[in-house]
Amino acid sequence: MGETKKNSKATSILKNNPLTSIVKGNIGIIVVLIIMCVAVALATDKFLTTNNIISVLRQISINTYIALGMTLIIILGHIDLSVGSIVAMSGTLTVGFIVNQGLPLGVAIVAGLLVGTAAGFISGFIVANFKVPAFIITMAMMNIASGIAYVYTGGQSTRITNKIFIEIGTGYLFNVIPLPVVYMVVLIILFSFILSKTKFGTYVYAIGGNREAARLSGVPIKKIEIVVFTISGLLSAFAGLVLCSRMYSGQPSVGSGYELDAIAACVLGGTSMTGGKGRISGTVFGAMVIGIISNGLNLIGVSSYWQLIIKGLIIACAVLLDGQKGKLELLKKKKLAAN
To answer: Is residue 21 part of a domain?
Structure first.
């Protein structure tokens, strides 16, 4: 009898273990990730070196910052095409404020982050209040942000030598863990908590799942949409800050295609393009897959042009699979209702 109780307790602990839940919920993408790691490791002996692993983690971290915000937006049932341009705009402006305008480091960083946050807020405000499709308004914001970056810099990169600023993107915690990876872990924990444990997260899922039902339930839809787009702008601005710090310069061309990688990470991680479904852990695994694909193809010597084609095909396949999964779930529900 005592043995049975112990076994049932152990089973209950396993079922309620967050790690077990993460593995179960993302088993497909985890298997894909393992297969990819093995394939790349067999193709090149450079993949499992310490320097390369650190490089991959840094690369993944930038995409993850952006993808966290994109996850919230896609769960809402929207899309944000402006994130890559906000990365470029915020990064170049922050560097320019320090180098050209001579602003104190802290003031310049806050100003750069506020610019990106404002861009997200404007997109969210228009989407929420004027019913303009997010695809259209964020495409407009993409051009505006990119144009601001080029106009401000004259199309030239701005070099920065401020040691404290450079440390933001190149420093290490305990001389072991890159600081961009530390930021990534903190943000993953924060947004996992927000989505799964707060009323705000519940509202995001409710709006994406059934907008009309959410409205009738008293969910402040406009407010949530504005906040989510604002968060996306802030995270993109932060990504731009870290990226420029890593590159020792502000470059207006940086961030091109970052929206593609962020969307790919979300979709690969199981976030439904129709809204209402998605999880932070899935997005993180999706970002890992995208990062390893890019790194592996670079190590093997595949052209960056081919990499764009491969990433595009991956997104297309993921969306198709998501659509088929949705149809299967609908059929299951109909069968259960019929029974």
So the answer is: no
